[in-house]
Amino acid sequence: MGRTSLTRVITVDSQALVHSGVRGFLEPFDDLELVGEAYNGPDALRLCERHAPDVVLVEIAALGADWCDCLRRMIVRRPGVRLIVLTNTLDGDMVEDALHAGACGYLLKDVQAMTLAQSIRSAVAGQQVLAPEATRALIVAVRQADDQGYALSRREREVLNLLARGLSNRDIAARMFISTATVKFHTRSILAKLGVRTRAQAIVRAFEQSLVPKFVASQDGPETPQMAGILGFAPLARQA
After folding, report:
1. Does an H or E element contain 21, and which?
2. Domains, the chain, ranges and CATH?
3. Which own/partner pairs from 133-139 qualify as long-range (CB within 8 Å, at least 24 positions apart)?
4. Of 43, 121, 140, 149, which sits 20 to 30 A from 6 (CA to CA)?
5. CA–CA separation, 230 vs 232, rounded Å?
6. In the chain, % of residues over pLDDT 90
């Protein structure tokens, strides 16, 4: 009989205990081989190139603020790799963001060994693998977005509000504790959903459709001159 085809797996997590746990989970299965353990985004990118994994099990918290961008870069470094988020964080918007960034699965860390093994096999076969809790959270997030109009996720609405205040990508990233690459990712998604091509058009559409308040209150002061030029009105002076 021929040798069983091996599926090469890498884990990405900041906790050594998680790596050893996954190693123990996969050891009984002859068709699954753990070939690398990364503790952060740069490590994960290097191991993707070095070991050519079929599947990466990734805790997005280990990737930092630019986790969406890091997921996309893994796919660039290793075309065809299947990314499965393995996390304790359950958030519908985060599930949606992960899938948009190229992940094919979203599992929670209380997953059983047999379920994890089968999920890896299903991912290699081209299927999406979502924990039931992740599926429910995603459905709730999508329904809430549909109710609000244009199917914007909560994070996309946050970015749109800050765009409407005239903030730069760097300022938005600082406010939301994410990377500028993630801001650009959300902005591209916003433009596509609103059916516009530029940030200025998105802001105008947002005001026209009441997706953001007509006058966005800013803790830093009145609307910026940039906003005045986009919207065609002068910023209101604060009363002394």
Report:
1. helix 16-26
2. 7-139 (3.40.50.2300), 149-231 (1.10.10.10)
3. 133/90, 133/108, 134/90, 134/95, 134/106, 134/107, 134/108, 137/90, 137/91, 137/92, 137/95, 138/92, 138/95, 138/96, 138/99, 139/92
4. 43
5. 6
6. 48
